[in-house]
Amino acid sequence: MKLIIGLGNPGKKYDQTRHNTGFMVMDALAKKLNVSIDTKKFDGLYTKFKYHGEDVILLKPQTYMNESGQSVSQVMKYFKVDSDDVMVVYDDMDMPTGKLRIRLKGSAGGHNGIKSLIAHMHTQEFKRIRVGIDKMKHYDTVDWVLGHFSIPEMQLLLPGIDKAVDAIICWIETDDINKVMNQYNG
């Protein structure tokens, strides 16, 4: 079983904001796989389905970014998902818009959603796809991540979202994170 989590904030107010890049990837993934992430449970929206014989869960926590781990830990306990079968997609303002960085594990790096996951999962050992949202130096961090993408930024972001979707599908199909990292990092 694979659990793929996109991080973001719930509600119309946060739709298409930089901090909701994880949700945007999940929506694109769901569309490509022809599923809907619309079941409300575990403090989140999720769907569970079979893909190439593999059970897959897509999750969008609805607890706000800083408490994402609450939703994730509930899903992991209920479905008995091991942290080795978890992949988290989230924004990273230290990378250029639309660029990907895929990792096996790591620290939170200042990202509050990841801090919450580490606290609730009791491990840093879970796969991650960071999607770059850049950072304009003259902006306050909170204002920046909760701001909306400009049209030129979206033109950079959309190919990154598509690449993240392809990377996730590659991981589900091959269960080979090294192959995914070699093919999709950068």
TrEMBL record:
InterPro entries: Pept_tRNA_hydro, Pept_tRNA_hydro_CS, Pept_tRNA_hydro_sf. GO terms for molecular function: peptidyl-tRNA hydrolase activity; tRNA binding. Keywords: Cytoplasm, Hydrolase, RNA-binding, tRNA-binding. Pfam families: Pept_tRNA_hydro. One of its GO terms (biological process) is protein quality control for misfolded or incompletely synthesized proteins. TRNA binds at residues 14, 64, 66, 112. GO terms for cellular component: cytoplasm. It is found in: Cytoplasm. Its EC number is 3.1.1.29. The record marks 91 as: Stabilizes the basic form of H active site to accept a proton. The active site is at 19 (proton acceptor). It catalyses: an N-acyl-L-alpha-aminoacyl-tRNA + H2O = an N-acyl-L-amino acid + a tRNA + H(+). SUPFAM superfamilies: Peptidyl-tRNA hydrolase-like. The keyword RNA-binding applies. The record marks 9 as: Discriminates between blocked and unblocked aminoacyl-tRNA. It comes from the Bacteria. Gene3D superfamilies: Peptidyl-tRNA hydrolase. HAMAP family: Pept_tRNA_hydro_bact. Hydrolyzes ribosome-free peptidyl-tRNAs (with 1 or more amino acids incorporated), which drop off the ribosome during protein synthesis, or as a result of ribosome stalling. Belongs to the PTH family. Monomer. This is Peptidyl-tRNA hydrolase. It comes from Sharpea azabuensis.
